[in-house]
Design a protein that fits this description.
The complex is a heterodimer. Chain A is mostly helical. Chain A contains four helices and no strands. Chain B has one domain (4-58): 434 Repressor (Amino-terminal Domain) (Orthogonal Bundle). Chain B contains five helices and no strands. The radius of gyration of chain B is 11 Å and the shape is globular. The N and C termini of chain B lie close together (5 Å). Classes of the chains: A mainly alpha, B mainly alpha.
Chain lengths: 153, 69
Amino acid sequence: MKKTKKPFSMDERTKLIGYRVVAVMYFLTIFAMQCVIMYRQLALDQDIHMYEDFAIIFVVNVVFLISALLYFGAIPIQKLSLKAIALIYLLIIVFGSVFTYLRYNVFGSADLSIPQLLNKLLIIFAISGLLMLFFVVFTLLGKWRMKKELEEE
Amino acid sequence: MKNIKIKLARVEKGLSQQDLADLTGVTRQTIGLIEKGSYNPTLNLCIAIAQVLGKTLNDLFWEGNNEKD
């Protein structure tokens, strides 16, 4: 029998192991990045401009990760209801507000006044809205893709 | 749970694990782990193995007929 042995031949099992290892390492990297950002921001009290590039990579990465999971159906959303969207939107706003308050008024030296906090809140509303829009669009695109795939013979 | 049926069918055909691996496009280790019951192959691989060994999926993979470890 003719042997077709390649030095790095991958099959379904080795690919599966590879995907698992990559997923775990990716999660650890993202987690470590988040820890570094929090440490710089809250403990070292560094200005955002000192690690802006880092933060942008992190944010873009996480946003696209969630979008990809939604698009490829890894987060199974059976029905997209307005109630659920509003609830998630609200949760993001609450999380963003608490984080901003802690950042400036608890861990930061500059205490923000109420108008300043309200101003920040407006930004949080806008960014959260954009994020939700992004996620909803990718969810709908994923559902459309799945529908097309199921229709194909 | 060991899959004795695959091993028996393979030996009956006069194939080594490496031969079966080459014919189904996987590594020898994968075949070894399937026979040992440590890896659950995809349906595509099950079909490929069954075709190479000239058996049906029921003959090779139906649990009711498998011997328990």
